[in-house]
Structures are given as structure tokens and as C-alpha cells.
Design goal:
The protein is α/β, with parallel strands linked by helices. The protein is 38% helix and 12% strand. The structure holds 2-(hydroxymethyl)phenyl 6-O-phosphono-beta-D-glucopyranoside.
């Protein structure tokens, strides 16, 4: 049944976070070191450094983050006050398998999520859980080189099976790999390290080949997880998760249009494989030409066919625009990126393009014919706390309202099948890209600055009350 806004009556309004960006407690309860624990703080234009282990004297913002590990009860209570129907978080792989290659899981880690999910249910909030959100055990990086080693498939699947069984009756909605397609930008050190646990010097010439092989192992692991999950509980809904950044041609010049199309193919084959169960022909042709992804077996192909996802989960923040380079088009994802003259940008230079969300929903619906969930969307911005403690964030409300409007159009006018909407960073947390606290997304403000100072106290921004009203009216009153 639908409601006044046109959204289904059981639409999953909520918010999204990832373990490493808010939990803190990086060594609590026997947790191991993850890739996020060796990333220092950067800022816009200053990349985060990925150090060889945890080094003395460096600032690692994820170690303590906003200490959700000890504050989750009060935080979930605030989510419930906003009316959340669901809450998307990830399980920190290193709480369950501190090193990644153990046989036996860490009971203290499992127990933490037992209690966290129970707290959600206490408020009628459905957990939506990502298995791998930039949180690979650092030991797997050191010993196996991350996902460049096929053995990691087994470690991941063992981890997935362990948590599927443990939370069989507590979690229904799952996602395998967060933004598995970020690594299309293989020459970006952060992207390939966080997706694949492959830590390279910037500009390493092997990055492209390594990425395609690692990503192949990941889509196989993702399909295996889907298969096993359905066996453990046939009612599970297991999705993939891609970063959806539509790539527009700058002009109607055919070479620009082709450039955009090729860039889209390079960026979305991951979800093609996860939703269709096979590689698109354009990528098979590419691999034939380049010799990348040499290790693929017949059994892999079968697994991919049997492990297609139940729904497509995606993040949407912005669009990209490309123009064909005159001489030598690489078709590298947005390698030929240009400024879109029609769009404004955030303080962190991210374009703001609400219509791109409607475009994305249409594009994904037409391509995959699956239900979808928007599992991230939002504006990173600096907030100011007034003398009376209030936080006025009309810029955040404007951004979200414009996107929700387009989302509703996609449902009501275009007929897309949309399960839910979980804006990113519903409580302020550590930025993935920059490691900053000051790049805030939350409806709930957390008192902590980029140097790690602050009381960690929580307070409601104006957007808290706005979102509460949106949920209450199921999107009719924006
Ligand atoms: P931040 C860009 C860079 C890094 C991670 O990003 C990203 C993106 C956006 O596409 O992906 C997601 O924190 C990611 C979250 C992240 C969020 O975007 O750099 O799934 O972990 O926090 C926002 O502003």
C-alpha cells in the first residue's frame, strides 16, 4: 500500500553509518587492527596517510571516533526519537576475527553486536548491515596483500557465515561490500586500500591489473555470501552496495557521449556482475585485450550466476561530468573529469545534483530490474554551535529536501521500486575521505573537533526536527 507521498507504507526511513567511522574502541573487547586504524587524518586536498601499522605520534581519528561503542544506547534512542524504521551500520570484521584468518570467532565482538541489534529492535528499528565497509583486518593486508590473494575469499566467507548464523533472527537486510566500485579509481591510494586492502604507492603502475583481479575475487566472495546467507535464512535480503555517481557527457559531441558511456561501463560492471550473475560483454572484451583478471575459473562463473543479489543498494552524493580528450582517451573512470557548469559544489568541492538522484534511480531500475535502497546520501558541511546550544543547518535541510523530492518523483512518476532511504552519517562521525570530524553530515551533533578534543556530548540540530517530520508524514511534508 502507498501513502499520500506515493511511498509505500513500510518505507524504510533511517540513517547510515559504518563501524570504523563512529564506534571507536579500536582495541576494546579484543578487536584487531583494521585498515581504518592505520589511516591518519587529512583534509580537503590533503590525502590521509596509510601507515605501516599503528605508529607512535600519529593522529588516527578512527581509534576513538565518537565512541559509539560506549554510547550506542543513547544514540539509538535519539534515532528512535526521529522515528527511524531502520539503521544501517556495518560489523567491524576485526571485532569478530581480529586477524582475519582465525578459525574461531571472538565472542566479545559477537556479543557487542548482539546487544547493539537488540537495542535497535527494542525501538522497532530494523538493522541493515554491511559486511565489509573499509574495515579489512590489517593482518590480512600484511600477510596476504589484501584481496590480491584468492585465499581471502575463504576468510571473508567464513566471517560472513559466522555473522549470518549468529544474527539469523536479528538481521534481515544485509549488504556485502561497501562501494565496491570506488576502486575504479585504482590510482587513488585511498580507494584501492579501503576497497581491496591493497596498499600501493601513489602512481604504482601495477595498480590497474591488481585492482581487476582483486575485484574479481570480491564479486565471487560476494556471490558466495549471498548463496550461503540464503541457505542460513531464506528470508534474508542480501544486497550489493555501489557508489552511484552518474557520469554525464559535457556536450552533445558524440566523442563526449562515448567517453561518458565508456566511463560508466568501467564504473558499473561490478553491479552488473552482482545483479546479472555474469560480466558484461564490454568488460570481457576489455579483459581479453588487456590480460587483466587472468584468474577466473568455470566454478567462479557458476558461483556468480548462483549468487545474484536481492536488491541494489547504493550511495548517491553527486554526479561527474567528462569530456573526451582529443588525443588518447583512456576511458578511465572520470579520468577526463571536467567541471559541470550547471552545478554548485560543497565546501569539499562535491557537486550538488538532486536531479542526478532521480536519473540514477531510473538508470539502475532499467538496468537491473531489482528493488533498490538508497543507503547513503547527504551533505558534508561545517556546523556552528550557537551560544544557546542550537545548531541551525538550513543548508543540510535544503540538500536533503531536494534529494528526497527527486527520490519521490522517481517512485511516483517513474515507478522505481524503492525500499528505503538512509542518509549518511545520521550522527556526526569521522569522514572516510578526509578523516575530519569537521566535515559533518549528522542530524545529531557530536562535540569533538579535528584534533580529538571535545566532550562527545550529543545535541540535536534543526535538521533533526525536519527529518522527524519527514518520517512522520512518510515524505508528504518536506
Ligand atoms: P566522506 C568519497 C570518499 C570516500 C568515501 O564521504 C566515500 C566517498 C563518496 O563517494 O564513500 C562514502 O566521509 C562511504 C562513507 C563515507 C561517505 O561516502 O569522505 O561509504 O564511508 O563516509 C562520505 O565525506
Amino acid at each position: 500500500t502507498t501513502t499520500k507521498s506515493g511511498l509505500r507504507s513500510d518505507f524504510l526511513w533511517g540513517g547510515a553509518v559504518a563501524a570504523h567511522q563512529l564506534e571507536g574502541g579500536w582495541q576494546a573487547g579484543g578487536k584487531g587492527v583494521s585498515v581504518a586504524d592505520v589511516m591518519t587524518a587529512g583534509e580537503n586536498g590533503v590525502p590521509r596517510e596509510i601507515t605501516a601499522g599503528v605508529l607512535a605520534g600519529k593522529n588516527y581519528p578512527n581509534h576513538d571516533a565518537i565512541d559509539f561503542y560506549h554510547h550506542y544506547r543513547e544514540d539509538i534512542k535519539l534515532f528512535a526519537e526521529m522515528g527511524f524504521k531502520c539503521f544501517r551500520t556495518s560489523i567491524a570484521w576485526t571485532r569478530i576475527f581480529p586477524q582475519g584468518d582465525e578459525t574461531e570467532p571472538n565472542e566479545a565482538g559477537l556479543k557487542f553486536y548482539d546487544e547493539l541489534f537488540a537495542t535497535c529492535h527494542q525501538y522497532g528499528i530494523e538493522p541493515v548491515v554491511t559486511l565489509a565497509h573499509f574495515e579489512m583486518p590489517y593482518h590480512l593486508i600484511e600477510k596476504y596483500g589484501g584481496w590480491r590473494d584468492r585465499k581471502v575469499i575463504d576468510f571473508f566467507v567464513h566471517y560472513a557465515e559466522t555473522v549470518f548464523k549468529r544474527y539469523r533472527n536479528k538481521v534481515k537486510y544485509w549488504m556485502t561490500f561497501n562501494e565496491i566500485n570506488n576502486q575504479t579509481a585504482y590510482d587513488n591510494q585511498f580507494a584501492i586500500a579501503t576497497d581491496s586492502g591493497i596498499v600501493l604507492d601513489p602512481g604504482d603502475p601495477d595498480a590497474e591489473a591488481l585492482m581487476y583481479q582483486a575485484a574479481h575475487y570480491e564479486v565471487v566472495a560476494s556471490a558466495l555470501a549471498v548463496k550461503i546467507g540464503h541457505k542460513i535464512n531464506p528470508a534474508f535480503k542480501i544486497g550489493n552496495m555501489i557508489n552511484m555517481t552518474p557520469i554525464y557527457p559535457l556536450t552533445a559531441k558524440p566523442a563526449d557521449v562515448m567517453q561518458a558511456e565508456k566511463a560508466m561501463q568501467r564504473r558499473y560492471w561490478f553491479s552488473d556482475v552482482q545483479a546479472w550473475g555474469e560480466y558484461p560483454r564490454n568488460m570481457e572484451a576489455f579483459f581479453k585485450r588487456t590480460g587483466f583478471r587472468a584468474d577466473i575459473t568455470l566454478e567462479d562463473r557458476e558461483v556468480l550466476r548462483d549468487g545474484t543479489v536481492d536488491y541494489v543498494g547504493f550511495s548517491y552524493y553527486n554526479s561527474n561530468t567528462v569530456a573526451a580528450s582529443a588525443d588518447n582517451p583512456t576511458y578511465h573512470y572520470a579520468g577526463e573529469a571536467v567541471t559541470n557548469p550547471y552545478l554548485q559544489t560543497s565546501e569539499w568541492d562535491w557537486p550538488i545534483d538532486p536531479e542526478g538522484l532521480r536519473y540514477s534511480l531510473n538508470w539502475l531500475q532499467d538496468r537491473y530490474h531489482k528493488p533498490m535502497m538508497i543507503v547513503e546520501n547527504g551533505l558534508g558541511a561545517r556546523d556552528k554551535v550557537e551560544a544557546d546550544g542550537a545548531i541551525h543547518d538550513p543548508y543540510r535541510i535544503d540538500y536533503l529536501r531536494a534529494h528526497v523530492e527527486q527520490m519521490i518523483k522517481a517512485v511516483t512518476e517513474d515507478g522505481v521500486d524503492l525500499l528505503g532511504y538512509t542518509p549518511w552519517g545520521c550522527i556526526d562521525l569521522v569522514s572516510a575521505g578526509t578523516g575530519q570530524m569537521s566535515k559533518r553530515y549528522g542530524f545529531i551533533y557530536v562535540d569533538k573537533d579535528d584534533d580529538g578534543n571535545g566532550t562527545l556530548s550529543r545535541s540535536k540540530k534543526d535538521s533533526f526536527y525536519w527529518y522527524q517530520k519527514v518520517i512522520k508524514t512518510n515524505g508528504a511534508d518536506l
